[in-house]
């Protein structure tokens, strides 16, 4: 199934992807970074899934409930019409101490017959699932996961074996049936009643709407912004406060290619940008939790590129022996970026701290000390080469990395001047800030290209330099000319490639286009920014509003891991840049 045909469900701990054919094809239980319970997305023949699909030919229309992460799919057949309402349930007091994936079938017209299949995957033959009946309940075991398949009385089991079960249900207008999975890992399970599960679908919907109602944004673009905010909320891992980059692993950046990575970890860049997006829309609690977690990681483990969502080092990358989405291999667990050095982490954390205090908040003395040490480290290391924002194997003096160092030192000086950081090294930070700016002007500008280049000595361009406008780097003339060059060289339809030479290796990086839109808006080109934004949203309007990392510029198909936090937060930043008056 095409990636654009999936919607996302979540509970603050795990995320499931539900397809337009009624099949849950991805769900890691109980946590975002757990091994998958359902993995047909990456293992089409032998992966696990949980499907509820009409037995007749059908048309389907899908949408999220307004300002909610509860998903509705309406199936129309020759004999009738029925709706499946799906939720990763929470309770009235917040996240449940177990995973509860609830699916309610509601009859709307005539009568519709459904086939249900629960297939337990073998996780690349590392586990052998089995089922048993305990206390009258259908219980399944997949490795360390213990789960229940609960159903209302109208659902009839037609087949049961260790690999799963099949069932049928026929529903008429006005009737309702429930099929749900309750699961946990190495823990006893509560067996809720069907009535409790059904009620929690509506409780969860209410909780989502209450959260969304507090988002600060004006019409008419509020629904679009709220949908991205809700996608970002799915990636906030509530047990720790970390923000995952995405909910999946190894969805390819090019079908059949090998650029398939595990994004179920917390990148400083993504977390920092998400915190800023939360602050921008008034989600103060989420921003505070994520910033506290991020500062703790920086203090305990140093400025790494990414961390586990529990904290600490990301596991070393390894391959899993499954075919991959669209036969794109390898499928990976873990990520090699954890051992890279990127100067961008300095700019990301300081920009985040700056936005935090600009929103009227206060840094504690411990956080101020952590930031001061990071500013000193940045001042010492900025002349070194690094792997750059794009985590490249070849270390260079990447222009965006130097701009990030300038950004870190500029924000450090501002924080010190406003009393948020100790001023002992303030003047030293200011001098190094100016040295970085001079170095960039001397080495990274190409008058022949009329642009800042990817790194000194090359004629390649990097679309991420559009972020320099938000960071308030340089005057507007050179940045404007750089944006024009990026539009000439890296644009493909309504999209942009990350940097020069990527046309054959991967799709277009959606965040880059949103960064370009934001940059044009901040430079006063509001009409241009709005036109670009509308064109991009029209191109992406293929599903229910859950966006990936990339898109194929020819076919428009989604590519890369999803929901992709960087895409959604870049949308939020772009949209607010030309809707709200403040930057």
UniProtKB/TrEMBL annotation:
One GO-annotated biological process of the protein: carbohydrate metabolic process
Annotated Pfam families: Glyco_hydro_15, TREH_N
Keyword Nucleus set for record: no
Domain of life: Bacteria
Domain Trehalase-like N-terminal per the UniProt entry, residue ranges: 4-81
InterPro entries: 6-hairpin_glycosidase_sf (IPR008928), 6hp_glycosidase-like_sf (IPR012341), GH15-like (IPR011613), Trehalase-like_N (IPR045582)
Domain GH15-like: 221-519
GO molecular function: hydrolase activity, hydrolyzing O-glycosyl compounds
Keywords: Hydrolase
Name of protein: Glycoside hydrolase family 15 protein
Organism, scientific name: Sphingobium limneticum
Phylogenetic lineage: Bacteria, Pseudomonadati, Pseudomonadota, Alphaproteobacteria, Sphingomonadales
């Amino acid at each position: 199934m095409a990636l654009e045909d999936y919607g996302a469900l979540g509970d603050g701990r795990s995320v499931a992807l539900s397809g337009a054919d009624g099949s849950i094809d991805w769900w890691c239980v109980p946590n975002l970074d757990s091994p998958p319970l359902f993995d047909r997305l990456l293992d089409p023949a032998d992966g696990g899934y949980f499907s509820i699909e009409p037995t007749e030919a059908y048309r389907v229309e899908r949408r999220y409930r307004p300002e909610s992460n509860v998903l509705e799919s309406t199936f129309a057949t020759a004999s009738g019409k029925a709706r499946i309402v799906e939720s990763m349930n929470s309770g009235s007091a917040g996240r449940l101490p177990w995973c509860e994936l609830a699916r309610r079938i509601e009859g709307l017209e005539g009568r519709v017959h459904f086939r249900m299949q629960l297939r337990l995957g073998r996780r690349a033959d590392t586990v052998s699932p089995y089922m048993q009946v305990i206390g009258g309940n259908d219980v399944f075991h997949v490795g360390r996961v213990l789960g229940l398949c609960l159903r209302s009385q109208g659902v009839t089991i037609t087949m049961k074996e260790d690999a799963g079960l099949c069932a049928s249900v026929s529903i008429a207008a006005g009737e309702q049936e429930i099929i749900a999975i309750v699961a946990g890992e190495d823990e006893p399970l509560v067996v809720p009643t069907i009535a409790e599960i059904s009620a929690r679908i509506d409780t969860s919907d209410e909780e989502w709407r209450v959260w969304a109602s507090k988002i600060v944004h004006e019409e008419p673009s509020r629904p679009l912004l709220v949908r991205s905010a809700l996608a970002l909320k799915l990636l906030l891992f509530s047990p720790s406060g970390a923000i995952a980059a995405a909910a999946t692993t190894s969805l390819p950046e090019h079908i059949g290619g090998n650029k398939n990575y595990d994004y179920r970890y917390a990148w400083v860049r993504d977390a920092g940008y998400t915190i800023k997006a939360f602050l921008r829309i008034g989600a103060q609690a989420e921003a505070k939790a994520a910033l506290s977690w991020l500062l703790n990681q920086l203090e305990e483990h140093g400025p790494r590129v990414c961390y586990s969502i529990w904290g600490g080092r990301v596991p070393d990358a390894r391959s899993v022996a499954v075919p991959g989405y669209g036969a794109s291999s390898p499928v990976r667990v873990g990520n090699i970026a954890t051992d890279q050095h990127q100067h961008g982490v300095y700019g990301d954390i300081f920009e985040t701290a700056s936005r935090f205090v600009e929103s009227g908040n206060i840094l504690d003395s411990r956080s101020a000390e952590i930031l001061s040490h990071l500013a000193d480290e940045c001042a010492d290391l900025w002349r070194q080469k690094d792997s750059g924002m794009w985590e490249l194997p070849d270390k260079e003096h990447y222009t965006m990395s130097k701009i990030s160092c300038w950004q870190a030192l500029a924000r450090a000086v501002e924080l010190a001047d406003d009393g948020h950081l100790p001023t002992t090294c303030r003047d030293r930070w200011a001098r190094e800030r100016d040295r970085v700016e001079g170095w960039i002007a001397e080495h990274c500008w190409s008058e022949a290209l009329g642009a800042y280049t990817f790194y000194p000595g090359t004629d390649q361009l990097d679309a991420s330099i559009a972020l320099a406008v938000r960071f308030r780097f340089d005057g507007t003339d050179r940045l404007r000319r750089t944006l024009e060059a990026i539009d000439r060289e890296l644009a493909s339809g309504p999209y942009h490639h990350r940097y020069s030479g990527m046309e054959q290796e991967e799709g277009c990086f959606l965040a880059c286009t949103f960064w370009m839109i934001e940059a044009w808006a901040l430079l006063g080109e509001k009409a241009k920014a709005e036109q670009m934004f509308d064109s991009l949203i029209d191109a992406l309007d293929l599903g229910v509003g859950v966006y990936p990392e990339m898109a194929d510029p020819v076919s428009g198909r989604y590519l890369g891991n999803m929901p992709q936090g960087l895409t959604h937060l870049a949308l939020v930043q772009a949209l607010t840049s030309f809707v709200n008056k403040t930057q």
